[in-house]
Write a structure and sequence with these properties.
By secondary structure, the protein is an alpha+beta fold. 30% of the residues lie in helices and 21% in strands.
Length: 278
Amino acid sequence: MAAPRKIAGFNVLAKIGEGARSDIYAVQDTKTKQVWALKHVLLKEEKDERFIEQCQREYNIGSKLDHPGIRRIKRIRKQRSLLKVEGVALVMELVDANSLDQQLPKTNREALEIFLQIADALGHMHTKGFVHADMKPTNVLITESGKTKVIDLGQACPIGTVKKRIQGTPGYMAPEQAQREAIDERTDVYNLGAMMYWVLVREVIPTAMPPQGADAKLAAAVDVDDIPPPTPPHVANPMVPKPLSELVLDCVAVDREDRPESMAVVAHRLTLLKEQLG
């Protein structure tokens, strides 16, 4: 299907991606000529209302953040028919970059720099009272200069939120997400740890939700007591320094009380590891 010529008053330049019930376009403001990314969600069925709500939540949270490592959210425009919202257009910073899974670090030093930038961005979210709750390689963009951008705040929420349904990505979600318990800063610590594990080992860790594509049904979470410990990264990949491996394992501890107490602690340990590499 051809891309529309205009959405919410913006000229469509090109379609650049797709998400859950959404299409993402590069668009241009007809007045200022500024180019943006625009996430477009249309209400086609009643069950699509949650994607409209998710887009609204992304705007409500993203508009309160101000960090160079998080994609800026500019505005949201709603498309109405009479009094009913039939679609939303979320206007965002356009970033010329590849996702982390497409542009993997070539050295441990590069990996540490990426992890450190992400930890700093997530720490900013936490100071504003929010958690990302869906940290994974596809939600990080890497520019040619090596700068990171955390994207997709669709699962983000205030610290302490208890969600009505299981949300997150199998292979990365923390046990408390799968058990529908309160989500806090250490949930992001786990998500980041699981993401670091994948970057270093190229495998997802065993989580309370089976990995995508697994035979097990995703309708119910695995009992946390049945989660096998992951193979230490330095064992699975001998190129990984043991101190970095230990940090990753600390981050993905099943009991959140055993994880680093804050993203600042994670960032500090990453900084020390980076300095040790010289």
